[in-house]
Amino acid sequence: MMALSRGTLVSALLLVLLVAIPVAATMAGEPFYVTLATRIAILALAAVGLNIALGLGGLVSFGHAAFFGLGGYVAGIFATHAFNGEPLPFGLTATTSMPVIWLSAMALCGLVALPIGAISLRTSGVYFIMITLAFAQMIYYFAVSWPSYGGEDGLSIYVRNGFPGLNTAQPLPYFLLCLGVLAAGLVLFQLIKGSRFGTALEASRQNPTRLAAVGIAPFAIRLVAFAVSAMVTGLAGALFADLNRFVSPSMLSWHMSGELIVLIILGGKGRLFGPLAGAMVYVLFEYALGGITERWQFFLGLILLGVVLFARGGLLGLLAGKARHG
Amino acid sequence: MSIALIIEQLLNGLQLGVMLFLIAAGLTLIFGVMGLINLAHGSLYMIGAFACAAVAAATGSFWLGLAASLAAAAAAGALMEMAIIRRLYERDHLDQVLATFALILILSEGTRWMFGSFPLYLDIPPLLQGAVPLPGGGQYQLYRLAIIGVGIVVAVGLYLLISRTRLGMRIRAGESDREMIAALGVDIRTLYTVVFALGAALAGLAGALVGALQSVQVGMGEPALILAFVVIVIGGIGSIKGALVGAILVGVVDTMGRFLLPKLLALTMPASQANLVGAALASMLIYILMALILALRPRGLFAGQA
């Protein structure tokens, strides 16, 4: 069944495209396309994170931009402090080493996600959507009105943070690094999906009462899923800040949360490669439509509306048939 | 810090609350009756503001503009409902969020297409220019008082509409059991369109009224929308009473927080730092309030059955 299904073929094709195009672009001396592909990989990673909560757990978080932005600010703040030679709070030493930054971003997002999740998960349905939005707005307004790290203007990263053994200032090595992290994120998603925990998480979406009846508390499962989901999205945020060498409150805005949901739905929710397909289509549309007309958002809206109304399994659903899970 | 200043800030909070109520009433009605979460509600608010500014600029009359804002927003709402929203009632909230998010993109960009990127300005009508004296000295803008008056009239009107009229009876019936009232021969599709257009008209009215206080521009709907969501979530989704209480609460807490927090903090820390921390805290205050209320009452203050 798994051997050569259309789903596997389409997913493999997506990966090959994502790798082949930047490599070809580098050889052709067109670094712009490498940056575009890096953007796809990072946004896909952020959406893979959200997909853990939204796709598997049915937790429609409308506030994941909070974690995306927090991850970005961790990268920005580390870089700024290291650049100026100032120590960080809590006795941390500022560094430009990506692994340290990534771990810090993930730790921070996990720590922030736990109380947010614990309060939000008391609610469900539309209340959950709204309360996650409210928490994200809280952090957004904090970032806007707190001037130490640029406030509304954001924070520039003068030199992209480094990774041992790689020249991250070059587009292609940085792309390959992001691709590696995306691959790790996808593996994590698949591991979670196949694990006992993942089964319980999907059961908590489909029938929480029955899950509780067999002795598993849906709340704990959901909370862990929410935190892990936030950590992956936060990691993507750190990568995104380094890609743009800039972080601003717009990474925390509710538009960003909406975009992350869009990526998942566009690709097909709960699917391993859904976020990647969604991110590819979204970024390429943005680029292609943006080249034709400055009104690209208008047409993007029309396309999105079409997908929601007429392509209910997302694009992968159209190409690869219905998802096998409920 | 004089009494007059406090009264002025309280009135500002009340005025903000009343505006939020006009937006939130439609939102909560639409959720309560149709079970639909409509992110594009802020766009209807924007459409109202643009219609008012455009017509007022063309005819020179704010009042014609106000009528145009009601008509344009109601028409846009009815069209939207019949063409798109209708297909979303049976879908889950995720699809609704996404489709109405797409509608925001379309409506915002479409408005920018028609009116350009520069903000429009709307003058306060001559009848309502000027100020009234406040007790304890000081003055207050007459226009803002008029907005508060409009809000009170709309709140009473909505209450009467829903509790005393046949349409209101159908709306209440639609909230509690939509299959049953359809079976009793009520044309539920038309009812839904009417409710949607009514909510849209209220949002459009709010947009037109605010348009004379701020500039009219694309993107004005989004902050208003998010505040309105905070309001209905605090009040309990589906409850008009909850929307009223939530709106006043959010309006007053937000305004008074921005006014008082820096002053309160200045008692414990240097003034410059107090301003900084106070401003940051004040901008987060209503979201903190919402989180607190939801943590204690997960379905809001006046939870309906929705």
UniProtKB/TrEMBL annotation, chain A:
PANTHER family associated with the record: ABC TRANSPORTER ATP-BINDING PROTEIN (PTHR30482:SF17), HIGH-AFFINITY BRANCHED-CHAIN AMINO ACID TRANSPORT SYSTEM PERMEASE (PTHR30482)
Name recorded for this polypeptide: Branched-chain amino acid transport system permease protein
Listed GO CC annotations: plasma membrane
Membrane topology, as annotated: Multi-pass membrane protein
Alphabetized InterPro entries for the sequence: ABC_transp_permease, LivM-like
Subcellular location: Cell membrane
CDD domains named in the record: TM_PBP1_LivM_like
A GO molecular function held by the record: branched-chain amino acid transmembrane transporter activity
Membrane-spanning parts: 38-59, 66-84, 90-114, 126-143, 172-192, 213-240, 273-292, 298-320
Alphabetical keyword list: Cell membrane, Membrane, Transmembrane, Transmembrane helix
Organism: Aquamicrobium lusatiense
TrEMBL record, chain B:
rRNA-binding is among the record's keywords: no
TM region positions: 16-37, 44-64, 70-89, 101-122, 142-162, 190-213, 225-253, 274-296
Membrane topology (UniProt): Multi-pass membrane protein
Location in the cell: Cell membrane
Listed GO biological process terms: amino acid transport
Entries under CDD domains matching the protein: TM_PBP1_LivH_like (cd06582)
InterPro entries for the chain: ABC_transp_permease (IPR001851), BCAA_transport_permease (IPR052157)
One of the record's GO cellular component terms: plasma membrane
Cited Pfam families: BPD_transp_2
Keyword vocabulary terms for this entry: Amino-acid transport, Cell membrane, Membrane, Transmembrane, Transmembrane helix, Transport
The family this protein is said to belong to: Belongs to the binding-protein-dependent transport system permease family. LivHM subfamily.
Protein name as annotated: Branched-chain amino acid transport system permease protein
UniProt source species: Aquamicrobium lusatiense
